[in-house]
## 1
Amino acid sequence: MKFTWFNLMPWPYLPDDFRETHRSVWVDIPNTLYDPRKGHHVYHTYLDQLEYAETLGFDGIGCNEHHQNGYGLMPSPNLIAATLARRTSRAAICVIGNSIAGYNPPIRVAEEFAMLDVMSGGRLVAGFPVGTSMDTNFCYGQIPALTRDKYREAHEMIMKAWASDEPFAFDGKYNQLRWVNCWPKPIQKPHPPIYIPGGGSIETWDFCLDHDYNYSYLSFYGYLRGKSLLDGYWERVAKRGKDDSPYRAAFAQIICVADTDAEAEQLYAEHCLYFFNRCLHVFPPFADPPGYRTMATVKYGALSQLTRARQKILENLTWKQLVDERFVIAGSPETVRQQLEECIKGLRIGHLFCLLHNGNMPDWKTRHSSKLFAEKVMPHLRNLWPDYKHDERWWVHPMDDRIRPEEQRPGAPKERAEWPR
Amino acid sequence: MKWQTLDTKKGTRCRVLEGGSGAPVVFFHSAGGLLADNPFLDRLAQHYHVFAPEWPGYGESTGEELLEDMLDFALHGWDLVDALALRRPHLIGHSMGGMIAAEMACLAPRDLDRLALVAAAGVWLPDHPIPDIFAMLPQEIAEVLFVDPARGGALLTGGADLADIEALKDFYIVTQRRLAMAGKILFPIPNRRLSKRLYRLTAETLVLWGAADRLIAPAYAAAWKALIPAARVQTIEGAGHMLPYEQPDAFVDALVRFLG
């Protein structure tokens, strides 16, 4: 198993009555709720946590891209990854990823990802999401019905740019470049491992299988609800005649570890509820503009969108519900180990994105939970896939003689007590 | 009036509502499509030979994947006129349909007789930002489209009971398909630089507006008049953005006076 410590980087100062007084955490959230001076502390706290996760032995550290929102403060995940490339030397840097339909021209992604791969000595995992509709359509203005076509073209340009040793002309529908000549090029050959975050569309499964990319299901609703979707994916894998290596799939799971189950509730409940009640409070039309999903997917999932089941789930949530339905895997190391084993085996995943910082959780709790996880949970889950022990197809291949700049600096980053007022 | 289906040279298959006799008039519908009942078309057909095509992506018309940008949309309009074998028809366009009709008139100004733009999209005034119809709940859409949102909501859904989950599902799927198509020329801002080309629009033009339009404010009527060489403006009271449905008599009277 590979474990990646992921930070969504939420804004931890959303007011208590945020749900009642604002219609959305995304797109049109008043930016007066953001305080850049506090933001300075928030970025450094989160970046230190990612570096700390490497010292705990996590295989990867992860970030992603979102815009105009209080849910995740990384409009540019590549800036985050660049600082990590200088401050770490072992963990994979997982950028999940750049929403390539929104980049003009997309060669920019080929260049920046190549820079990150070179700076990190070949530790980049490159994610290519379509992007949420909030980000790609409403914040970045892409036409919903053409987004997937533009994504397809951007992917083609990036992969061709990485593969080609000669300048070439790219005559696309959305991008025309007479001279494509990627400088620098990535260390990892033929390219860094590629992860495609997706929901449930068959088109995305086939896209991953066509190119042998990792399929990452990034849900916040836990492995019990994720099961039917991953089952569908594995059926598709079998149908396409591909091998069933668990490393073809990744899953994101919110995890909270304490000494006892009771202590987990006491320490983490308020922060997880902050995440579900405030960070996921999205005005429904922003999440579902006409054309963003294909008609096949709309017809398949029409009712669930319609009844706004997802929004309903979020009303009056309790800790008990979060834990019982496994939106959150929380408790003593033994409880967490048992449930995660069920999650990993049930979904057949080789990569786990561990969401160990949640909502407005302060630094010390985040580190406490992460340390317990690394010391008392992770070692017991390492070898769940012995048959695939040597399957490195979906993981990084760093160069051996890479520079380790962080070793020239003394000491690990210091822990912080509470958020600055 | 009755439906016919025709194929364009490009490969779309379109359903067209046809009726009446006299001078040919083509009506292009708005982003919401033709509704279940279109009484203004029946009244118009008492004076003219009326053709009201459904755009690909709407109703039974297909081939939406063949139309991607403004030029595709405008040429599709002329492809329809060709497929119907019409010579110099009058063009009437409502909202998105007005945007398309105006673009058609700029491309081929000698191929139409007169032009009526009804609460047309296609121009953007920074002081009068048009509400984002792609970021609205269904009830909010009725509120910006109609003077009387309750009555308008019923018109939009064709009287279907949206408390019934199957009816709601059908309505949702139909709406998603229509607006996905409309988004190609209206998202994120309904301006494809038509204003640069309107100097070519030499047809006599009537700009018709509902006095209580909450989607595209009546201030836009003056902007169109200023951009089009031979345009006059008429405003109709008691109507919002869905003027043809809200005041069908006044709407048809204004057109008959203009088209003769």
## 2
Amino acid sequence: MNTPFAGLWAVLLVGLPLLLAVGAYVAGRRIRPILVWIVPLVMAGMVTGLIHGLIDQGPLHYEIGGWTPPLGITWHIDGLATAMLAVTVLVMGAVCAYAPSYFAGSIKTASAEKTKLFWPLTYLLWAALNALFLSADVFNLYVTLELLTLGSVVLIVLAGTTDSVAAALRYLVLGLMASLFYLMGVALLYASYGTLDMATLGGQLQQDPLTWTAASLMIVGLLIKTALFPMHFWLPPAHAGAPAPVSALLSALVVKASFYLVLRLWFDLFRPVAPAPAAQFLGALGACAVLWGAIQALRADRLKTLIAYSTVAQLGYLFLLFPLSSAPAVAKTAWLGVILFALSHALAKAAMFLAAGRIQQLAHEDRLDRLTGIGQCAPLALSATALAGVSLIGLPPTGGFAGKWMLLVAGVESGQWWWALVVVMGGLLTAGYLFRFWAIAIAASEHPSQRAPVNWRMELPPFMLGVAAVLIVFLATHVAQLLEIGAAFPIGGSGEVAP
Amino acid sequence: MTLFTLYAIGGVGLFAMGLFSFVAVAHLLRKILALNVMGAGVFMVLIAIAHPERAATQATGVDPVPHALVLTGIVVAVSATALALALTCRYHAETGRATLPEDGPGNEGSGR
């Protein structure tokens, strides 16, 4: 702990949303304006403070309550963690501004009851996400994963339909099974090495069957939670069936959180002991996800299902990192590219789902064949999908382009051209399914008079997220500098770059 | 065979049995039970790890850390089971089925 302030910000980033989750449940409507407007700004301020502390001081270890490992639990604050915290604040801020209007205008009744539960659960989710990004203790990570699953499941059920209950149940039982895989892995790691602290574990791992079993159990558990092909089947009904603000949180942040853990475990712990085919296998699953998700998105008959399958496809890209980073020369490029891609996907996908929620409300449904000409009713929401979509496809100048470009470069330079081919194919397919929606949305409408006034509270947040997904490319060098602080990257370049 | 290995093998066995029945059985209540059996398996392994013969920390006696993990794990398992049961009740009340749509026929207690 080298700065008291940075440690304080980190504690508050978890503690404040947790307190407010309880507060929101007890106080209900009375603190609603605080939850909607003030807290996201305060959280953004704290993340900024944390980033400043990081740039001044380098990566931080924070020992909670002053207890040192092996008994205490540590938090590790580095560039990657703060980047995830920052994108969480952006998405959460947009969702908080959007949600009151969404629930007020929602077709189903009992929306008051729903909003009552939405806020405590959203803040619980926020606390769990922040704790997950900061934790450096494999068991503590298990607890945050469970919090995340439980919070997400209840949020899905807020949609109130029977389908959403079924989707939430499937997600819950699979999520619990995945967590138990992870926990079994943790138990085996502790049996071998007698510690749960990732920094302590890092240097100790041996190439033995017990470690391999532990690593496989933990990674497989997380892959189920990240919905990597072929364990993706729970995702589309859950993400498409949830209320729009919840879909945005799930697709943008919750699946990224378990991917973040895979990333952490792989690069901080398992990479030196993992056999080479493991990385190739993960990459192959990722490639299948890119193609299969895109094909299903092309066949989807509902807008939100289309966006949810797009998430399956885009998550596949993230796993191309593992084979690409096995070539030392390009490992860093691939790593930065994938994280940049994940960050811009979070912004773009949240924008897509929020805009889809607005479109669904205007059209009273989201079957694609009923959305003809919907662009005339909601021009701003449609523009938001356009900005976000351009980033998803990976056209310049967007964050998605920067990420995909770095993946392409890494693929070509390391001679693994087939992964580069997957990146290009995936981009084309993405363009295919998104243009399918846009072609319907901008077609001439049968009843052009139904133009609604712009609902700023519901259309501006997705639009701003779309703008952010584009603008991130202009900040790419700064983001890369931030990510390199404390990055687990001894190979291919200097591990820690002085800002 | 020491007590430690016996417990550890028992734990892994429970985990495997739970996993098998989680995959093989469609009925939601039995799936939730299977998850609890898997959880019990993990907890058994953790308890075995804490055994003095095996204790990873060099201190004498029983290693307390795995016990703390099991306690936390039980809390998590109880809340997760409660949520799963509540959702199952609601799903059953709304549809009259106790299996998820693609998992099999809706009649009660059908295995596979």
## 3
Amino acid sequence: MFGGQFVGVVTERSGSKCWSCGASAPDGDVCPECGRLQPFPAGSDHWTVLGLERGLGLDRSDLQERFHRLNRRLHPDYFRLRSPEEQAISLEASAAVNAAYRALRDPVGRVEYLLELEGMALGTAGQAKPPADLFEEILELQEARMELQTADAEEVPALRARLESAREELEPRRAGAEAELAACFPEWDAGDDATRRRVLGRMRDILATRAYLRTVLRDLGSALAVDQDGGSADR
Amino acid sequence: MTDLTIGMAPTARPRESAESGPKELVVGIDLGTTNSLVAYMDRGVPQVIRDAEGRGLVPSVVAFGPAGPVVGDAARRMLVRQAERAVYSVKRFMGKGFEDVREELRYFPFHVTPSQEIVRIRIGDRELTPPEVSALILRELRTRAERHFGRAVEKAVITVPAYFNDAQRQATKDAGRIAGLDVLRIVNEPTAACLAYGLQRRKEGIIAVYDLGGGTFDVSILKVKDGVFEVLATNGDTHLGGDDFDRALVDLVVDELRARHRVDVSGEAETLQEIRLGVEAARVLLSSEERTVFTLPLPQHSLTYRRELTRAELESVIDPIVGRTLGPSRAAIGDCGLPLERIDEVVLVGGATRTPLVRRRVEELFGRLPHSELNPDEVVALGAAVQADILAGGTTHMLLLDVTPLSLGIETLGGAVSVLIPRNTTIPTSAKEGFTTSVDGQSVVDMHVVQGERDLAKDNRSLARFDLRGIPPMPAGLPRIEVTFLIDANGILSVTAKEIRSGTQASVEVRPTYGLSETEVERMIDESLEHAEADVQARGLIDARNEAVTVLRATEKALVQGADFLGAEEAARIREAVAALAVARQGEDAGAIRAATDRVNHETQELAERLMDSALRDSLRQRRVVDVPAGEGR
């Protein structure tokens, strides 16, 4: 949702011609003829902005290096003394690079973005799916969590222990979902259209389970943390 | 601006250097809750600009005396004499509404007018908003810089707490404009500190900055690599700092006076200020000493309050406050996506980090000894100077990539928040969101933008309400309005909107919830110029009157001393001039007073010379007496 690309407000591009002098110029870089900064074409996706092919198997340190390198080239700090057109292009290009890096650096964000591009976005919390085998247990957990809020002093340790052990059990499940997701990447990257659609559907299901587990873990975490800090950390 | 004080070889490609021209003069300003300072980059080394006595810090206090506003130490002295005419810690009010600060108003001697909107501070018959008061501090810093450079200073980078929201940032920018400064960038304080620190130590890795100032707390975690300072996560509390330590101590003293001496000073503004400044001094002392004695003479109650305060006792009072920094610190560590062990260094910033308890708590939290080689009061201003130099085209080997501290969202049906830009997103950044109409032919869509981490709009900070106007009449649900939210490198939001079907640009009307409208800022810029003129005039009048009094006194004395040398006519002329000056002195016209003073000086010139000669003769006579050989004169 926040990965939307900028449509150049000041200048519309035509092909890879410099908007200023018309020479052939690379996107998101300075024109070799006149030295002016070129915007990314309207509708460029996150991979294009970072100079990558569309794919899910990405190296995080390579991404970061691209993110730094591109910002060193087009960050607005370096264009303050240039024309208003170039300042606007720099602001938009830098925002596009930042959005691209943010979305792609995290494997989950990467898949979410791909789903969005394919019109298969997960949407909001409503679509989070509980893992079938854990459904009963999670319901019980939610009850224990509620009880902790109103529990007497002598009941607290037992309830806490119960929630702690649930957290220890669920945390690996969530990590497992992320590993399962990453395991799909090579298949998607190498697959044909039909394979890609199938893999994408599977990844969507994994994400739905993960989203559910994450919510449960967050609730557990805040129930345990509030009790622990006794409100001192946050008045 | 064409002249160049700092010779910098153009590092950019030749084509660029031809366009960018010579380096501008841009200063870096740390506008603090307690102290402010201004710095600049001198041949690659950031330097604080100091006054003649070598002081870099300007207390962030503004007092409104008869000769107009005074800033700094002079204003601080007025706190214990005319407390209701002095404003301090105004940073706590920046971008806030009356309701936000109501609770803590009892700690302040000045009056705030109750209103639904922005805080308005009442001084006599004048009302000032926090940006106007901050502008007076900025003006003082600007004057200091101009004296240093011997030329106009018009551009600045100003730092703000990283956890400042959009309204607080905007208020700071407005303050700069009112002070006649073009604010090129709002930089986050911990990030600025890291920049100065990075320049100094040239070290790479993951750095956590713990910044506890007079009134605000920030924690930022940065990755420093190849000259890029990338903020990974930030968190904080814009209402937490050394001020809160002092408040707890003031409450302790006031309670003790009441309990042990049956004396209630809670209504005595000047006494409360005296206590505040006293406990602050004691607290600072206890950073290096184990114990100190706090003494408060209360002649109005025929009492002198004396109390020993130990470091242990201080720590028990402030520990809960220090504890409040731990939650945000843990949140930042959690958000940065790295385990605690990956943090290479912890840097302390802000005067309150000199407190040993704070250092202990930070050390416990991060599991390593924090660094504090750079002066924690100055490091933020030094970093601002570095960023100023980057923007001026000087430094090109460093780049700051900061984040937006708070999630930005819009209120949806039912009062929930739809997050558009999550917290800790690198800025500049943008987000697009689609809207449509709910009534046939609707031409205006109303939007509410909020900032914060809570799920319901009402629990977050209301930033602004927007009207999208100029939507072409269409059946309900048909228009596709695409709204683009852009957070620039200052962390400040702007909004543009477009109706996709018709291609019309919808206009966006911003109604800041706790800020100043554009018209108000412009009026304040005008007023501040007028006031500046009025203030200069008021001061001129007072100076002229003081000068007149001095001259009148000296003349009276001379008329007595010089009675023997005076001709009748000369004496009459002098008396006439003296009488004229006595009359002029009562008036409001500084020029007339100065003219009358000049006339007295002119008429008494000869007399003065004769008196001087006579005094000289006298002194020579005296010397002769002294010259008498030793022994006899004794």
